[in-house]
Structure formats: structure tokens, C-alpha cells
From TrEMBL:
Keyword Ion transport: no
Protein name (Swiss-Prot/TrEMBL): DUF6534 domain-containing protein
Mitochondrion among keywords: no
InterPro entries: DUF6534
DUF6534 domain segment(s): 171-260
Keywords, ordered alphabetically: Membrane, Transmembrane, Transmembrane helix
Record field: transmembrane: 15-37, 49-70, 90-109, 121-148, 168-186, 207-228, 234-255
Length: 320
């Protein structure tokens, strides 16, 4: 005899789907983390520490999500009232997810800052996106604070609407801003050498793909939250739970793709004109003016590229 239909699809069902996606993406995190540490042992300790810390955060958030699912499905089996209270593990998970978003965004903001060395607009361009990233993180902290005051689901959905919307909107704008900034800066660093232009085009494509992915998941999170928060649906968790894994994988993909660029065989002319273009550094090292023809006069664009070469920050890539 079939039992009563408890109509758990919008709640437990969405939570279950979100955890399934999180497990899938975390397997990608594990593979990319192992690949990173095996392929780039000479990266800076700070960068390797960031990768290890983000991978650990990814694992902890997954464990907390599974614990939340266990609490609803197993511990409180057939207890509908349990869905009206948010456990502490979810509050901790939400804070760690907000921290993950912030750290990944700060990494790319730092890349923009490094590439804009010597530019007059360096401070305001990175300052604006830094404020947006802080607003995103502040929204997440606000949701956690309100949730800690009262674990009731309806109380949280009602009182945390503004900080939750702030976090998601700021995250979308931040990711789009980072993507556009990287595209503009990379395009502005183009040289006259075909290999350099090809590599910088690839960097731009990777930046666009990364931005589209992270911004899309945050936008879907925001849209489903606005559409369903008033009826206690958990549909937004389908996008929230795996979102941290998507962010971490987007950063690891940027780091791990470097070997593809390095393995490309340059022509003789390219070997004389370009030392290396590093996706992690988002920087290019060009030849000195001595390699140019004697009668060539350096224009402003060429001078800017040489200045960029001199001021490039030695970052996390292998020494060349």
C-alpha cells in the first residue's frame, strides 16, 4: 500500500539533485588538484597554499551538504516539520561557500592588478571590482548572521532577502566585470607577432569561458531564488550547492591550462620575439628593442609593451 504523497520534490528533491551535482563537480576538483600539484611543483608556495585551501573548502562544503541531506532524509525521516528549520551545518556551509567565491574572485582581481602595472587607471579599475567582491562576501555573511539569530526557514527567507539578493547580484556583476576587464587588458597587450597574438587570443577565450560559467550559475541561483523563496521551495539549491565547485574548478582550469600553451611549438621568428605567454600570470614577455630593425622607431604602443615587460610581476609560473 502506497503511503501519502508528502510533496517533497521542491524541497528534498532539489536538495538531493544539488548534492549529486556537487559530488560530480568535486570529482573534477580532485582530478584538477592532483594534476596541478604534479604538473607545477615549482609554483609559488602562496599559490599552492591557495589551491590546497580551496580544495579543502570544497571538500568541507560537500561534507556539510551531505550532512544536511542526511539530517533531512534519514534522521528526520517522514518528519515534515524538520524542513521548517535550517540546521547549523547549512549556515556554516553557506559561509564557507561565500568565502570560496570571494577568494576565487580575489585571485582574478590580483591578476588584473598585476597586468595593469604602470597604468593610470589601475587603481579605479581594480578598486571597483574589489568593492563588488566585498559586497558579494558581505551579503553572504549577512545571510549567515540572520540565519544564526533564528533557524526558522520562513524567518530566514523573509529577513535575509536583501543580503541574499545583494550577494547574488554582486557575484554576477563581479564575474562579468572581471571577464570584461581581462578581455580588454589582454587585447590591449597584443603585439605584432603572430604567435603572441594567437596565445593572447586563447587567454581571452579562456577568460570569457570562465566568466560565462560562473556568472551563469550565480544568475540561475538568483533567478530561482526570487521565483521560489516565498513558497519555501529549495529549487535555488540546485545551483547554490555545486556553485563552489564550479568556482574552484574555474580557477584550477586557468592554472592547469598553462602546459597546453607551453607545449605549443613556436616558429623560429616566434622564438626570437616571444619568450612565453602565461595564462596564470596573464602577462607577456616581449623582446627588447634591440631585436627590431635598426631603422624602426618605437611607437607609444610598442613602448607600453616594453614597459609592461619590465614591470611584469614574477608570479606563480615556472621560471623561463
Amino acid at each position: 500500500m502506497a503511503g501519502p504523497n508528502l510533496h517533497l520534490d521542491p524541497t528534498v528533491g532539489c536538495l538531493f539533485i544539488g548534492v549529486l551535482f556537487a559530488i560530480l563537480f568535486y570529482s573534477c576538483t580532485c582530478a584538477q588538484t592532483l594534476f596541478y600539484f604534479r604538473t607545477y611543483p615549482n609554483d609559488r608556495p602562496l599559490l599552492k597554499g591557495l589551491v590546497a585551501f580551496l580544495s579543502a573548502l570544497d571538500l568541507v562544503t560537500l561534507i556539510l551538504d551531505i550532512e544536511y541531506l542526511w539530517d533531512v532524509v534519514i534522521t528526520n525521516h517522514a518528519n515534515i516539520a524538520a524542513l521548517n528549520a535550517v540546521p547549523t551545518v547549512w549556515i556554516v556551509e553557506f559561509f564557507l561557500a561565500s568565502l570560496t567565491f570571494f577568494l576565487v574572485q580575489c585571485y582574478f582581481i590580483n591578476k588584473i592588478w598585476a597586468l595593469l602595472a604602470g597604468k593610470s587607471y589601475r587603481y579605479w579599475l581594480t578598486g571597483v571590482v574589489a568593492i563588488l567582491a566585498l559586497a558579494c562576501f558581505a551579503g553572504g555573511v549577512g545571510v549567515c548572521y540572520i540565519s544564526s539569530l533564528n533557524h526558522g526557514l520562513m524567518f530566514i527567507l523573509t529577513k535575509a532577502e536583501i543580503p541574499a539578493c545583494l550577494q547574488q547580484v554582486a557575484a554576477v556583476i563581479t564575474d562579468i566585470y572581471i571577464t570584461l576587464s581581462l578581455c580588454v587588458v589582454l587585447r590591449g597587450s597584443q603585439s605584432g607577432f603572430e604567435r603572441t597574438k594567437t596565445l593572447l587570443d586563447k587567454l581571452t577565450i579562456y577568460a570569457i569561458h570562465r566568466g560565462i560559467l560562473t556568472a551563469a550559475v550565480q544568475l540561475l541561483h538568483f533567478a530561482t531564488y526570487l521565483a521560489t523563496y516565498h513558497n519555501s521551495s529549495f529549487m535555488w539549491m540546485i545551483f547554490h550547492i555545486p556553485s563552489t565547485k564550479i568556482y574552484v574548478n574555474s580557477l584550477l582550469a586557468v592554472l592547469n591550462v598553462r602546459h597546453h600553451l607551453r607545449d605549443a611549438k613556436p616558429t623560429v621568428q616566434a622564438q626570437r620575439s616571444v619568450d612565453f605567454v602565461d595564462l596564470e600570470n596573464f602577462s607577456s614577455r616581449y623582446t627588447s628593442p634591440a631585436t627590431r630593425s635598426r631603422g624602426e622607431v618605437l611607437g607609444p604602443a610598442s613602448h607600453a609593451r616594453i614597459m609592461l615587460t619590465k614591470e611584469v610581476i614574477r608570479d606563480d609560473g615556472d621560471a623561463h
